[in-house]
Amino acid sequence: MIKKRKNKIELSQIKERSWVEIDLSNFSHNINELKKHFSANQSFMQIVKADAYGHGALQIAIQAQKDGASILGVANVEEASLLRFNHIDLPILILSPSFDFEIESIVHYKLIPSVNNIEFVEKLDLYAKKMAVKQPIHIKCDTGMNRNGVKIEQAYNLYQQIKKLDNILIEGVFSHFSSSENDKQFTQHQYKLFLDFAAQVQSEVRYIHIANSSAVANSDFAMCNLHRLGLLTYGVYSDQSIKEKVNLKPVMTFKSRLSHISIAKKNESIGYNRTFYAEHDIKYAIIPVGYADGYDFLLSNNAFVEINGAICPILGKVSMDMIAVDISQIDNAQIGDMVTLLGGSSEQTRVEFLSSSFKGSSYELLTQIGKRAKRYYLQNGKINDFAPVLRRDFIPKDFSDDKLNKIIHQALEERITKKELASVIYHDILKFFFIESDRDISYRSNFFYSINFTENDEPYYNVELQLKFDKILQNSYFIVACANNQKALESYFNRKDTEYRWLLDDSIEFQASRFKVSSAKVNDIELDCNTNLINNAIEIKCASELLEPMLNKLAHFEISIKTFYPKDRHQLSVYLSEIYKGVTISFTYPKSIENIDCVPIFSGKHRYPKVEQHDREIIVASSAEDWVFPNSGVVFSY
Ligand SMILES: *Cc1c(COP(=O)(O)O)cnc(C)c1O
Fold first, then answer.
1. Which one is catalytic: 49, 255, 374, 567?
2. What is the Å distance from ligand 1's center to 458 Cα?
3. What residues pair up with 539 in beta bridges, in sequence order?
4. Separation of CA 89 from chain center
5. What atom of ligand 1 comes closest to residue 181's alpha carbon?
6. Is the dihedral of CA 187, 190, 196, 198 positive or negative?
7. 178, 189 contact by CB (below 8 A)
8. Are 333 and 460 in a shared domain?
9. What is the pLDDT of residue 359?
10. Residue at 241 is within a domain
């Protein structure tokens, strides 16, 4: 049985400075309103370009597919491949012309380009042949918009040329209206031109389409079997006249909170450049949203927000990160109170109203709103998803260790339904993987590694290395290896019997006296160390028969080494090639080294080990219980 995912957050629990709510139920409602204007043979393409007009292309695509979309429309290859990365497998039409250099991606991601010239299609055909695929395309015709597309008079000619190409499938022909929301005459003119061409090819192509969402609301286009729906599905009217034809509900709401409350005395000004003066004492609030959040600068002194049902005017200029609003009419406004800036219940917060107040475009305002905001997706008034991805760059809060741990915990909990059990599994999961189930993989615990540089008259420092760790004893010996080039050392990384590897700088003469194991112990048993020069490496075998009875048991290792390091290298890298539980690395240096920098690169549960600086010693340590994964390390530079 599949357990339905519980709603983890309530709307009232949102802790954000500003956020966007996307109401998917309203989106479905709008699609159904538009479908009332379809005839039986017509389906639709959901337009999700520009991250679905700022609503989030992935979630809108998923919802549109549920609501019957047979194809998606995007602006370019990049938008389309993002959807493919997220496992959207509906056909995707690229509405803008593609470049030659995008052909590989078009084929790879199974996308459909709009084409308007034979040169591009011939190149596409060649590549499709090479990849042994039949590549679908739609021919875009220009019927008077004069933006892109083959001129309608030449469309049939292009059609016939493309038809000859073996690896191209003409799946659709289309055109685009310039003013379908309010110019019936020009729209009909464009439609007629398109039909003259479309009628000639209709029996051979799968899709004939011209109408955007406003066109669908205004008229029927009986010769077409596909409509391209954008703006109206997002609940925004492109023209007042459309209100009588479809009932739309806004999908996007932009919200924030009062972050500061104050009073401006009579005759004081508010904001940059003193564009607003208080005619009497005025109580105002600051909202932490500005034009950098997409709240347009041109809304300065020229818009309203909703607070507790009241309509409050913006005072003064919109700043980059703040706006001031008049809250005189609100009796007990508190810091933290919610504000709706767009998509509220009042006419004044509708996108259409806001954009027309500065002669802007609703399309533009939608795509710019909430640049810094996380989107929450609502279904029947409840949050069912949220998405910082696709929109913001890395934000530490989204991926913090705490959060990741919580996610793993929750995932286990949901599967196991028992908190304690989930916790036990979580803590033992790695141990189980590495010890119980796979004997070949081992790990070191309580790993302690100290590096001690001391002065020397030569151009090198004396180096004393000490390692202490616990590990299952697999052999009655182990190898410590040293080489003066990476290649020679590499073979030792693949050998399970090697406990330590050191790269001797090539400025130091390569001889056994330059790298010595001064002591090697397992469980306090001193091992015999034999040095061999093999294949450009100093190989030291540390062994004792006394270890035989201890095999396959946890043992304590201690290794001490003496070697050298050039003074002029100015950098020492420590590389952790195995799995560790608890790591401490100590670097001690002589007086002559003054400034030392330490950059740990840890992978594992915690990325940032503790770094302590003492007198001439730096200690880098993870906590004893933390797993540290291979490819971690520290770079000391001096
Ligand atoms: C954006 C776009 C649409 C959608 O138009 P709306 O007015 O948002 O419905 C349709 N067709 C093409 C070619 C587009 O670029």
1. 49
2. 75
3. 481, 532
4. 20
5. 7
6. negative
7. no
8. no
9. 95
10. no
Taking alpha carbons only, the member of 4, 626, 18, 625 closest to residue 321 is: 18
Residue 125 lies in a domain: yes
Q: Is 284 a known active-site residue?
A: no
- The single-letter code of the amino acid at 300 is S
Give, as one character, the DSSP assignment of residue 119.
Answer: H
Q: What is the largest CA-CA distance in the chain?
A: 99
| Ligand 1 pocket: which of 212, 351, 367 to mutate (most atoms within 8 A of CB) | 212
C-alpha span between 79 and 57 (Å, rounded): 9
Give me the domain span that covers residue 285. Answer: 252-372
Residue 233: per-residue pLDDT: 98
Examine residue 321 and state whether it is found in any structural domain, yes or no: yes
Q: Are residues 531 and 623 in the same domain?
A: yes
Question: Of 8, 272, 496, 610, which residue is the catalytic one?
Answer: 272
Single-letter amino acid code for the residue at 6:
K
Distance in Å, CA 225 to ligand 1 centroid: 16
Look up residue 528 and give its amino acid. Answer: D
Q: Which of 30, 37, 47 to mutate to test the pocket of ligand 1 (most atoms within 8 A of CB)?
A: 47
In 3-state terms the chain splits into helix, strand, coil percentages (rounded to 5) of: 30, 35, 35
Interatomic CA distance for residues 264 and 369, integer angstroms: 29
Of all protein residues, the one whose alpha carbon is nearest to atom 14 of ligand 1 is 95
What digits encode the pLDDT tens for the residues 306-348? 999 999 999 999 999 999 999 999 999 999 999 999 999 999 9
Ligand 1 first shell, C-beta below 6 A: 47, 49, 95, 176, 212-214, 228-232
C-alpha 385/C-alpha 376 separation (Å) is 6
Residue 356 C-alpha to ligand 1 middle, in angstroms? 20
Query: Which residues in the chain show pLDDT less than 70?
Result: 1-8, 388-442, 604-605
Residue 487's pLDDT is 86
User: What is the distance between the alpha carbons of residues 452 and 619, in angstroms, rounded to a whole number?
Assistant: 12
| 199 & 231 share domain | yes
User: Using H for helix, E for strand and C for coil, what is the string for 10-64?
Assistant: CHHHCCCCEEEEEEHHHHHHHHHHHHCCCCCCCEEEEECHHHHHHCCHHHHHHHH
What's the confidence (pLDDT) of residue 623?
Answer: 85
Spell out a b/e string for 550-562, using b for 16 or more CB atoms within 10 Å of the CB, else e. Answer: beeeebebbbbbb
d(CA 90, ligand 1 centre) in Å: 18
Provide the CATH number for the domain around residue 339. 2.40.37.10
Q: Quote the number of domains for the chain.
A: 4
Residue 395 confidence (pLDDT): 42
Six-digit token pair at 432?
Answer: 């189980």
Specify whether 491 is located in the same domain as 538.
Answer: yes
What confidence score (pLDDT) does residue 2 get?
Answer: 33
Q: How far is the CA of 73 from the centre of ligand 1 (A)?
A: 8
DSSP bridge partners of 635: 573, 599
The alpha carbon of residue 524 and the mean position of all alpha carbons in its chain are separated, in whole angstroms, by 51
Which atom belonging to ligand 1 lies closest to the Cα atom of 238?
A: 7
The DSSP annotation for 391-432 comes to TS---GGGG-HHHHHHHHHHHHHHHH--HHHHHHHHHHHHHI
Is 243 tagged catalytic? no
Pocket test for ligand 1, best of 51, 79, 95, 177 (most atoms within 8 A of CB): 95
